[in-house]
Amino acid sequence: MGALSSLTPTASWFRLDDESAVGTVRRFAVELANAVDLGERKAADIAIIVTELATNLVKHAEDGTLLVRLVRHDDNVGVEIVSIDSAPGMADLDAMREDGRSTTGTLGIGLGAVSRLAHRSEGFSVPGRGSILTAQLWREAQPPPPWADGLTRPLTGETVSGDCYAVRTAGGRRQVMVCDGLGHGPLAAAAAQTAFGIFHTAPDEPPMMLVERLHRGMSHTRGAALTVAEIDPDAGVVRTCGMGNVAATVITGDERRSTVSMPGIAGHGRGVIKEFEYPFGAESLLVMHSDGVSDKWSLNHSPGLSTRSPLLIAAAVLRDAGVRRDDACVLAARIRP
């Protein structure tokens, strides 16, 4: 079973408002790489990647933020950097990866260096809306691209998030969860951590049984809103089961369909637990998010984004619809990586 953890306590977001922040995020990334024994060479590569992406945000971007976090796949571990900004964006991102290309008269080697040094890097940019750039370096060989991925961001001023996402493949079942611990801060994070642990250690069972298990197992916490979804490629459906206001949306072509979540709080009361089923084909996309993300988001402003990686999609939704007055979490999933 492989999964990316969204509850690594060392994950940190950095605002890139001035050049002094570049050194701060570089030191943090190197410390993170050393903590998981990526090796001296890869730690040095991480330093270069972070410096290039952070400097790019300081020089060119508006509302630039950088996420540095650990990622895991089975026993393999890596460091991932996600760069997000709101403007000005780039008309030809591939061209900007070529050495010597620059919009400001500088040497222009930054994005090319990121592509060469990272095990996996990708980006998406729309002029006027901003850019999203990602890079990963793994301790061992890079794992296959994930079919589901997500991001969490704590409320401004908090160091931990009460939201989490989780991904698992159990008994052939492709299952995801988004959980929103009530409130924010350490107690909300503890509720989310409990849900995360139950989800990953539960036996092979469908979404409704998983939610029932989560409901029982979270009774000692302050509770949470959560949704579990299961993508079944053979049946061509996605099955969802939710309690509370975690949103799940199925997008197929131009059609966007919101799934049903029953009222209630996982861990408290006697809420109705019910499973629903929706068509889900090879080109379909599932987007789930906590109420720290407005439901007014749309992928229509970013042509081609819906065919890109789940991480890029989650980052774009978080950038465009995430609110700063609450913890926020977005997950995207599809049948194929």
TrEMBL record:
Stored CDD domains:
HATPase_RsbT-like
Q: Gene3D superfamilies, alphabetically?
A: Histidine kinase-like ATPase, C-terminal domain, PPM-type phosphatase domain
Q: What Pfam families is this protein classified in? A: HATPase_c_2 (PF13581), SpoIIE (PF07228)
Residue span(s) of domain PPM-type phosphatase: 159-335
Query: Which SUPFAM superfamilies does the annotation name?
Result: ATPase domain of HSP90 chaperone/DNA topoisomerase II/histidine kinase, PP2C-like
The entry's protein name is Transcriptional regulator
Judging by the UniProt lineage, the source's domain of life is Bacteria
SMART domains recorded = PP2C_SIG
